[in-house]
Amino acid sequence: MKTSVLITEAPAQEDVDVILQGLIGFNEQAIGMPGAARKHFAALVRDEARNTLGGAIGSSYYGWLVIDLLWLPETLRGTGLGTQVMRLSEAEARARGCAGIRLDTYSFQARGFYEKLGFSLFGTLPDHPPGHTRYWLAKRLD
């Protein structure tokens, strides 16, 4: 079989699906746990008109809740809403039977905020982006 490698900035959904399903299948076979059962979640901060102002977005899979995005506008920071979003996300993780929560942040973002909530650093990547550091944190719930 002759093969080639192509770089593209716009992979077709079918291409993404081939790779994703192949990896999920490999992982499920290796760990004996379904990974395709990814379940999304959002902890949304809304105003009285139900406009979303910020919050957290993520999903649970392989027994962990992963927070992909957390953001609040400057005017809402320091009001306790971020802590409330994180507490509700933790409650959701517990309700889903997750062993813990993981997330990442940058040196110019909120590492201290997460550590105050009981998260521990487990990885760093200096100079990502250049001049800054990326941090990975986790909090075990079990």
Automatic annotation (TrEMBL):
Q: Which CDD domains does the UniProt record give?
A: NAT_SF
Name the domain of life this protein comes from.
Bacteria
Annotated membrane-spanning segments are none
Which InterPro entries does the UniProt record give?
Acyl_CoA_acyltransferase, GNAT_dom
Where in this chain does the record put each N-acetyltransferase domain?
5-142
**What's the name of the protein?**
GNAT family N-acetyltransferase
Source organism? Roseococcus pinisoli
